[in-house]
Amino acid sequence: MKSLAELQAIKDRMKDKVVLREGTDGIRVVVGMATCGIAAGARPVLNAFVEGVNNGGLAGKVSVSQTGCIGICQYEPVVEVFESGKDKVTYVKMTAEKAQEVVEKHLKGGNVVTEYTIGAYDA
Question: What is the CATH number of the domain that holds 116?
Answer without folding.
Answer: 3.40.30.10
